[in-house]
User: Fold this.
Amino acid sequence: MEKKTCYITTPIYYASGEVHIGNSYSTIACDALARYKRLAGFDTVYLTGMDEHGQKIEEAAKKAGLEPQAFVDNIADKTASLWQELNISNDGFIRTSYDYHVEAVQKLFEQLLAQDDIYLGEYEGNYCVACESFFTKTQLGPDETCPDCGAKTRIVKEESYFLRLKKYEKKLLDYIEEHPDFIMPVTRRNEVVSFIKQGLEDLCVSRTSYKWGIQIPSNPKHVIYVWIDALANYITYLGYNSNNDANFKKYWLEGDQVIHVVGKDILRFHAIYWPIMLMALGLPIKFRLYAHGWIMMSGGKMSKSKGNVVYPLTVKERYGLDPLRFYLCKEMPTTEDGLFTYERFIEQYNVYLANDLGNLVSRSIAMVNKYFGGTIEKCASTSLNKDANEQLEKIISENTKKYLDYMESFQLQNGINAIFEIVGFANKYIDLTTPWALAKDEALKNELNDCLYHLLETLRLVTIMLQPFMPDTTNTIFEELGVTDKSFASLTFGKNSKYTVIEKPIVLFKRLDLTEEYKKYGISE
Ligand code: ME8
Assistant:
């Protein structure tokens, strides 16, 4: 049977800033989702990339004394290698300055123009002459002054192209109503619905005030508004409007799942402009949108001016990559913002990774070595351990199901919590069955075997489920357990009948001492 397809995308990152742990979240979270989907048997394509056009980038390049292309080349290289350092398993890395993307966007713009979904009109707004920029009413300072330089703005009219949003307002609302899972979580969906219900204005989709963008072929003094350009990446990458659109057919038109993951700040673009663009192009909307919250610092938003920016490689160098990936996925709830402080990071690291998981691995392996010379086989369940075994197996089967359900709907925090329900109980199982006491009585060899087999099976299942979050650590645990089948097909208790474990497991997570860390790094956040 052909595998089902799944196409997962992150937003494409602006080529003007640096990736900090806050905005690294979208990519790390999507990576966990993509790894999960592959394990769940989907033919998965995971796309990320760079959003390289627009005035902001043109200005940043000028400041750096570079041509815009050279400027973005540099940032794209750095970002792509950062994703490698963070073990991101993306299949594609699109850049909006790539020729194939530019050509495909030009074609779609001209199509929308020809069919009158885009029309030439006049943009009227508050303009700052010194800054050569338009500002919306909400951006303006007191007395309609420029928010950047403080000068008085004036009302200026400029020729511009507009995308008809109003025309599609009702159709979009109907679509949202008929597809309750289109925008998740529900709170974000409600935000979108109430925004649309206030009435949509046609969207200005061209600019003449800067050059670094995709030109409109039929009127080259205009460049295409950066969001039209950027949103289209999701289909141009697949070959839409090119002479090889096999992937577009396979993963979009005939695809089983298309998932866009975005931060809450760019919800509206993805939940309104993008589906309307697709409707106007006569394409199926196809995607499901998951909007996540933000990673905040204890003092609020991360920003250079506050001096509270934390970079992922700093955390990786100090504490390893997997703990960072784990922390971010575990800390971000489905509907709210998440928090990053070193204090909390260290606390979570100690509780979940060093204590709960790390100890379970090392204790279990040590006992198999000590009592069975490193090899253990499946045996019949014994009456002495009956209650504990039943409880453990019940917790495993309930939480495995929960994990699969949560992961399917991008609830990563809940997914991790389900795994750690199992880990937590497995540690308790050791106290309930007291293997060290069983070991004292040769007549209880079977009971001891039964207990340790239960522990190793539990660890195997936990490790399979943790793979999307901690790919390196889980590989190490698999090696230590001597397990080669890492697939979801083996995600059932009792599937593995024999273990030969490593003699000396490494310490996966060394306990951290907050005071020591303060001393070393002077961490203030
Ligand atoms: O928005 N916590 O790019 P971007 C969590 N180019 N997520 C955060 C965050 C934080 N503190 N700060 C930013 C763009 N993000 C556009 C996208 S797509 C067609 C064009 C998230 O580089 C943000 O919400 O500003 C987005 O999902 C991602 O980082 C990239 O943001």
Residues 108 and 281 are 8 Å apart (CA to CA). Residues 5-292 form a domain with the Rossmann fold fold (CATH 3.40.50.620). The pocket of ME8 is lined by residues 11-14, 22-23, 25-26, 51, 230-231, 262-263, 265-266, 294-295, 302 (CB under 6 Å). The chain is about 50% helix and 15% strand.
